[in-house]
């Protein structure tokens, strides 16, 4: 399966770190020799650069000038630009694993990634990992750097949190699991302070979570939780859903992308002590305004006055599937 490490290597190739004006080549070969020789003097002055080579300042200008053919598109991340500039100043970082030490934020979106492999452990400074819109169904926590603070897995196929919670990154502050395949009530037990002691933000939107009481009992242990997104789950159809959450989790600041004002907290005060108001059912009313393609039964019932013909009744059964 296509792994995160493989996608990262493709990303590096896309940045052209081995090619001019980055990396090592005829444009800066004397710098490599200078670094190899312990007695060599640093090449800091432009006039000290041999004929046919470029100064680091000139190479950086080629990367930074928006009109340069080697400039990155405007929508590229600041980290992509940083990596290219670092490789200009210190081309030797491309050898071995030094380049992995430079990456603090890794975003791989919609690249067909299926596996979060152990190659991620080479990113010893990684703080943000965004793998949205891929095909990931399982995340092994042992493959995640312990330095992670943000883990975003939106729009994947995650259905079980057991492997993720075996040894999760202890400093994680945001966990994004929106638009996945989580089903309740078996997954709520993984959403406690025992696994996520520093979690501030949690996105569980558009899954198949149904047990509001069970979920709240687990989320209430997360003392640092301030942002929660649950919209799109069946439990959000419960009439007292928002009020019950607001009163049950008093430290929340934002629920479903809507700020919780003090007036709202006062309005729902005491609702958490009335779980009997939460019903495990919901009613959906569907109104069909117009139907086409069916003959009107009344057209067949226009009998002449005094006719002795039999009365024929037509009826139709309509099935609405959703």
Structure description:
- Helices cover 20% and strands 7% of the residues.
- It has seven helices and eight strands.
- It has 322 residues and is α/β, with parallel strands linked by helices.
- α3 (56-64) runs antiparallel to α4 (78-89).
- It starts with a helix and ends in a 55-residue tail after the last helix.
- It comes from Hypocryptadius cinnamomeus.
- This is LRC43 protein.
- InterPro entries: Leu-rich_rpt, LRR_dom_sf.
Give the SSE map.
Layout: H1 4-15, H2 29-36, H3 56-64, H4 78-89, E1 105-107, E2 128-130, E3 150-152, E4 174-176, E5 201-203, H5 212-219, E6 227-229, H6 241-248, E7 254-255, E8 258-259, H7 262-267
Parallel strand pairs: 1-2, 2-3, 3-4, 4-5, 5-6, 6-7
Antiparallel strand pairs: 7-8
Helix pairs in contact: 3-4
């Amino acid at each position: 399966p296509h792994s995160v490490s493989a996608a990262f290597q493709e990303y590096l190739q896309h940045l052209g770190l081995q090619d001019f004006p980055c990396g090592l080549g005829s444009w800066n070969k004397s710098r490599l020799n200078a670094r190899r020789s312990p007695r060599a003097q640093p090449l800091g002055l432009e006039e000290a650069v041999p004929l046919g080579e470029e100064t680091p300042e000139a190479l950086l200008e080629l990367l930074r000038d928006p009109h340069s053919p080697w400039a990155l598109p405007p929508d590229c991340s600041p980290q992509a630009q940083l990596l290219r500039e670092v490789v200009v100043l210190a081309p030797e970082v491309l050898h071995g694993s030094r380049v992995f030490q430079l990456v603090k934020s890794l975003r791989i979106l919609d690249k067909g990634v299926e596996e979060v492999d152990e190659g991620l452990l080479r990113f010893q400074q990684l703080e943000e990992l965004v793998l949205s819109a891929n095909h990931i169904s399982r995340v092994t926590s042992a493959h995640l750097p312990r330095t992670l603070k943000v883990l975003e897995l939106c729009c994947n196929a995650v259905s079980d949190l057991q492997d993720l919670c075996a040894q999760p990154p202890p400093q994680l502050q945001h966990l994004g699991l929106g638009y996945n395949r989580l089903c309740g009530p078996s997954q709520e037990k993984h959403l406690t302070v025992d696994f996520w002691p520093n979690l501030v933000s949690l996105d569980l939107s558009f899954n198949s979570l149904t047990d509001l009481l069970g979920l709240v009992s687990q989320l209430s242990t997360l003392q640092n939780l301030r942002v929660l997104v649950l919209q799109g789950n069946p439990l959000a159809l419960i009439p007292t859903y928002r009020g019950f959450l607001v009163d049950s989790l008093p430290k929340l600041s934002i629920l479903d992308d809507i700020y919780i004002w003090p007036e709202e907290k006062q309005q729902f005060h005491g609702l958490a002590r009335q779980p009997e108001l939460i019903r495990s059912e919901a009613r959906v009313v569907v109104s069909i305004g117009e139907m086409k393609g069916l003959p009107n039964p009344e057209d067949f019932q226009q009998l002449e006055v005094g006719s002795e013909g039999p009365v024929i009744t037509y009826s139709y059964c309509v099935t609405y599937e959703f």
